[in-house]
Amino acid sequence: MPLLATDYTPPFLFKNRHFNTIYSSLFRRIEPVSFKRKRIETLDDDFLDIDFIENGSKKIVILCHGLEGSSGSKYIQATAKLLSKNGYSIAAMNYRFCSGEINRQLITYHSGKTDDLHAVINYVLPHYESVYLVGFSLGGNLILKYNGDGLFNLSSKVKASVAISVPVDLKGSSVALQRHENTLYNWRFLRTLSKKMHLKHKQFPGDLEIKSLKLIKNLTDFDEYFTSKINGFKDAQDYYFKASSKQFIPNILKPTLLINAMDDPFLSESCFPVSEAKKNSNFNLMIPHYGGHVGFISKGDFYWSEHQILNFLNSY
């Protein structure tokens, strides 16, 4: 039964889930990583900017960030640094319109857009013997879905995956995020997402109307009026149903680890796939009592979750 025990116990202050979540995002100090950026052209005449650490290793880890993150996110920088010090090359994705430059097409990134991940995997495959996938939050949903949805043939070079703080049930998570305690998180996400929609409107004035921005009070509203419509879904609920990775966990055939903290403010009860873990020997689940959302703060240069990522990848 791949329900793994956990020994994570944070310092006293960080037993508060919001402290654990906010500190790692706003106050953590990480010396910037020296990435080498490469641009990948996509089949729909768009591009993805990928930041690499190439150190001669034949093993590479593709890092997938969360909502409104980038290769500059502190959890990406820290994970890249730890893994590269331990014998892995790195390819840190920047999703469409997350690299600092507006993309050519109207469509955006979203929780289920596995075709862009597949493009990055295909780009690195000829140059490496082993490929690993690591995703955080939205990026974690992306790699879990990629592993199980059957839309693409997974190369034998893809060895293992790790997902951290993942809303595997997007509908449940959308409800959890509407709680009053999560107002600050909603505000931060909507601020940057709204700015991007204004820029997209200038780019595609005839295809994107932004009057609906006045109606948006939370991320569910944004997904209803923008994410779903731009990316070909009927509405937010259709998007949540089709993009949620939970339904694909039973089909995962590669060694995979999911770490979701019980106190994660972004997650609903439905985001802890215990029964799925019990039925799939390839899918491993850790549910620490503490950790917040992409937090898992611990003493030292690297956090507890980052060491778990390294340990799991080293096993394969």
DSSP helix fraction:
25-40%
CATH class designation:
Alpha Beta
CATH superfamily: Alpha/Beta hydrolase fold, catalytic domain
Strand order of the largest sheet: 1-9-8-7-6-4-5-3-2
Q: Which structural class best describes the helix and strand composition?
A: alpha/beta
pLDDT < 50 stretches: none
Taking the sheet with the most strands, its summary is: 9 strands, mixed
Overall number of structural domains: 1
> What gap, in angstroms, lies between the N and C termini?
19 Å
Rg result: 18 Å
Oligomer category: single chain
Q: What share of residues are in beta strands?
A: 15-25%
Number of helices: 10
CATH architecture: 3-Layer(aba) Sandwich
Number of strands: 9
Q: Main attributes?
A:
single chain, 316 residues, alpha/beta, Rossmann fold, 9 strands, globular
Helices and strands, with pairings:
Layout lengths: L2 E2 L12 H10 L9 E6 L5 E7 L5 E6 L9 H12 L3 E6 L19 H11 L5 E7 L1 H11 L9 E7 L5 H7 L6 H21 L15 H12 L5 H8 L12 E4 L14 H6 L3 E4 L17 H11 L2
Parallel strand pairs: 1-9, 4-5, 4-6, 6-7, 7-8, 8-9
Antiparallel strand pairs: 2-3, 3-5
Helix pairs in contact: 2-10, 7-8
